[in-house]
Design brief:
alpha/beta, single chain, seven-stranded mixed sheet
Length: about 230
């Protein structure tokens, strides 16, 4: 129990428990992997659905791994019994107990990388790693790079900005060797031009390479841009 009591004597505690995480893979199958993509979905999506557009870039030498967030929920609103027809989505975190949730998903993603790369002998020092986060998954991807063990050759934030609490000034060297690619839809209603300019200025001020790519759609993946990123 690690929170002070309130007037009624109530205490709030934390307990670490094992969890079973789910992920999806496609591509690979060759003798070695030249490019390994870790892709993190947005709010309310699933790994299985999110990975489908990446089919356009898979190959025997290119493997895509989509991690699924640990918190799932029924997307259909209302206080009723849910059935098989109700879609299920996942979320990386909420504002509630955010520090614990961030630690949990960073540990999870580190372990996922170890499982993917540790036992198969398919990766080498020549393997290029791409970490891509879409929407809510963009913040997750950035925090994983800063707080976890992954060291990508490129960080791609798609339909996402930088987390405001990212310690760029203290640990910006992590990104100097890989840089950041922002992918933005010109019709994306969630875009904030002022925030975009601030993010780019922060990175450029720390000599971190920045690339911006746009597509004609909204808040979604573009298969054409995926091909360009390859």
């Amino acid at each position: 129990m690690n929170a002070p009591p309130d007037d009624g004597g109530l205490r709030l505690g934390h307990l670490e428990v094992p969890r079973t995480a789910r992920f999806a893979c496609q591509g690979g199958g060759g003798k070695s992997i030249e490019q390994l993509w870790y892709v993190l979905h947005g709010y309310g999506q699933s790994a299985l659905d999110f990975i489908r557009p990446f089919r356009v870039i898979q190959s025997p030498e290119r493997m895509v791994v989509a991690a699924e967030a640990l918190s799932r929920f029924y997307q259909a609103p209302g206080n009723r019994r849910h059935g098989e027809e109700d879609p299920v989505g996942a979320s990386w975190m909420t504002r509630e107990d955010r520090e614990a949730e961030i630690r949990d998903y960073v540990r999870y993603l580190d372990r996922l990388q170890g499982v993917v790369e540790g036992g198969k002998g398919l990766t080498s020092e020549a393997t290029s790693r791409i970490v891509l986060g879409f929407s809510q998954g963009g913040h997750t991807a950035a925090r994983w790079v800063f707080m976890g063990g992954v060291r990508p050759h490129r960080l791609v934030l798609w339909g996402a900005d930088l987390p405001e609490d990212l310690p760029l000034e203290e640990r910006g060297s992590i990104l100097r060797g890989c840089g950041v690619t922002f992918v933005r839809g010109r019709e994306d209603p969630r875009r904030d031009p002022d925030r975009e300019a601030l993010d780019e200025a922060r990175l450029e001020g720390l000599a971190i390479p920045v690339e911006v790519r746009t597509h004609g759609g909204g808040h979604r993946l573009s298969r054409a841009v995926l091909k360009e990123l390859v």
